[in-house]
Amino acid sequence: MTLSSPGVAADSNGLFHGLGDHASNSFSVDGQPITDQQSKVFSNQIPSNSIQSIEVISGAPPAEFGGKTSLVIQVTTRSGLGVKKPTGSVTTSYGSFGSATGGVDLSYGGDNWGNFIEVDGLDTGRFLDPPEFAVFHDKGNEINVFDRIDRQLSAVDSVHLNLNYSRSWFQTPNAFDNLNVQNVISGGAGANPVFENVGNTDQRSKIGTFDIAPTYTRTIGANSVFNFGPYIRKDQYNYYPSGNPLADLGPIQNQSIAQTRSLTNAGVHTDLSYVKGINNIKIGANYSQTFLRESDRLGIVNSAFNSPCVDGNGVSQPGFTDPSQCAAAGLVSNDPSIGGSFNSVLLPYDLTRGGGQFNFIGHTDVKELALYAEDQIKAGNWLFNVGIRGDLYNGLTTARQAEPRVGLAYSVKQTNTVLRLSYARTLETPFNENLVLSSQGCLNEVLSPLLLCTPGVSGNLQPGFRNEFHAGLQQAFGKNLVISGDYIWKYTHNAFDFSVLGNTPITFPIDWHNSKIRVSRCGRTCRTSITCRRSL
C-alpha cells in the first residue's frame, strides 16, 4: 500500500495510515468486509502470495463501504478454476538478521472446479521495529495457510470458499535498559528494600487467526449478478510478561501485564448488481456481529510509581506502605490529602511492596447492520456516482446514521485530463481491539488512574460522523504514465485513536471531540497489477 498509493504513510510494525488518518483502513477480500486492525501487533494479514489483484479506493468511498474508510483496499484472491495443468511455484530467501522465508503455492482445476492453495513461513531475528540501532530480543516467526476452492454448479450458479489460518509468535524488542534489570526482591514494604538483578525483560506475543468465507454467486439474465456470502474470522491474541514480572521494569514501563484477548467477527454480506445502458446499479446489505473477550492481569513493578513517601525534592522513594511511615525516616508524606499523589487503591497490586496482581475480565458483542444502494452513471464525458448508505451500530453504545455519497468526474478527451469532485458522509465507529477495557475501565477504581480517566466522565466511546470532500485532477501522458493530484477536507466529530494502558505495551481506543484534516497529495501511477481508484 505504501509503495503504490500516494498519501499512504508507513508506520511501525506493519501499520499504515491513509490520507492523514491513523489506522482508519478497511479491506474487502472477495467481498468479505474486514475493518479491524491488520498490523503485526493486532492480527495476521492474509498472505501476499494469495492475492491476484488489489484495487485501492483513496477518494470518497462509495456507498457499499463503511467502517474505516480513509483507505479501502479491495482484494481479489487467486483461483485455480480452469487451470487444467497444475501450476505452482516454490520460493525461498535468506537475508540479514537471520531472516529466512519459504513458500509454496499450487493452482489446479478443470472447466467447472478449481483449487488454489498457498503455504508460506517466516523466521527472523527482526520481526518488529526495534527501539535501538542494535537489534536484540526481536525474534519472531509466522506461518500462513490459504486455500480457495471454486465450483461451477451450473451455467449460472457458482460457489467459492476461502479458508485461511495464520499464526505468529514474536518477542517485544528490548532496549539496553531492559538488560540486567535491577528491582526490589525483598523488604519492599519497609524502610530498606533490597535491590538485585532480576534478569532481562522477556515479553512476547502470540496471535492466531482463522477465516472461513464461502460465497454463492448467481447470474440472473444478461444484466444482473447476485452474491451471498457468510463469513467468520477470529483473532486470538496473547501477550506474555517476563517469567519474573519484576523484570518488566523499564525506563517507560511501570507495570507488568499479561493479556488474553479474542475478537470473533461473524456475519453475512449480500448484493445484487444490475448493469444496463448508462446505469450500473448495486444494492446490498451486510450484517456482522463481533464477539469481544478480554482478560488482563497486571501488577506495578516500579517501586517509585506509587510511593507513599518522597524526599525533600519531591522525588518518589522505594519502600513503605503508608504515608504515616515517612516522617520517622526523614521523608515527606505523599498523602493525597495534602497534595500528594499516592493512591492506596493501587497498593495491593504493587509487586515491589508485596502485593499481588489485578485481574480484569470484560466482554461484549458489537452488532452492525448496513444497507446501501448506489448507481454509477456514464453520460458522454461525464461520470456520476450517487448512493446512500444506512448504518445501524449497536455495541456498548448505539448509533444510527444515513450517509449520502456522491461523486462526479469529467473527462477532457483532447488532453487526456480528468477533473473530479466527491463528497461522503460516514459513520465513525471505535476500534474493537480492547474496546471493553477502554469503555469500562474508567468505572474500575484500579484501572481508572492507569487510564488517566477524568472523574465523572463515562468511558463508553460514542460513534461519530464525518463529512469529507475531495477535489482532484488526473493527467495522462501517453499510455503508461498518469499524474494525479488531490486536495481533501475531512471534518470529523468523535474521531478515534489509540492510547496505552498505564505504562505497558497494551493499547486501547480513545476518542477526541472533533478533528479537521486537510491533505494534499500528488502521485504517479504506472502500468501495474495494482489499480488505484482515486475519487469515484
Q: Explain this structure to me?
A:
This protein has 536 residues and is an all-beta fold. It has 2 helices and 27 strands. The chain has helices at residues 435-440, 447-451; strands spanning 8-10, 16-18, 25-29, 32-34, 51-57, 71-77, 87-95, 99-109, 113-124, 140-152, 157-171, 182-186, 194-197, 204-220, 224-240, 255-276, 279-300, 309-310, 332-333, 358-379, 382-394, 398-412, 417-428, 464-477, 481-500, 507-526, 530-533. Strands 7-8-9-10-11-14-15-16-17-20-21-22-23-24-25-26 form a 16-stranded antiparallel beta sheet. It has a 5-stranded mixed beta sheet with strand order 4-3-6-5-27, with no helix packed on it. It has a two-stranded antiparallel ribbon with strand order 1-2. A hairpin with a 7-residue loop joins strand 12 and strand 13. The radius of gyration is 27 Å and the shape is globular. Mean pLDDT is 91; it is low at 525-536.
Span of the ends, CA to CA: 19 Å
**Structural class assignment:** mainly beta
Number of strands: 27
Shape, please? globular
Kindly provide the radius of gyration, computed on alpha-carbon positions and rounded to a whole number of angstroms. Answer: 27 Å
**β-sheet strand percentage:** over 45%
Strand count, sense and barrel status of the largest sheet are: 16 strands, antiparallel
- Enumerate the spans where pLDDT stays under 50 for 5 or more consecutive residues: 525-536
User: How many H/I helical runs?
Assistant: 2
For the largest beta sheet, what order do the strands appear in spatially? 7-8-9-10-11-14-15-16-17-20-21-22-23-24-25-26
Q: Helix and strand string, N-terminal first?
A: EEEEEEEEEEEEEEEEEEEEEEEHHEEEE
Helix content: under 10%
**Overall pLDDT level:** 91
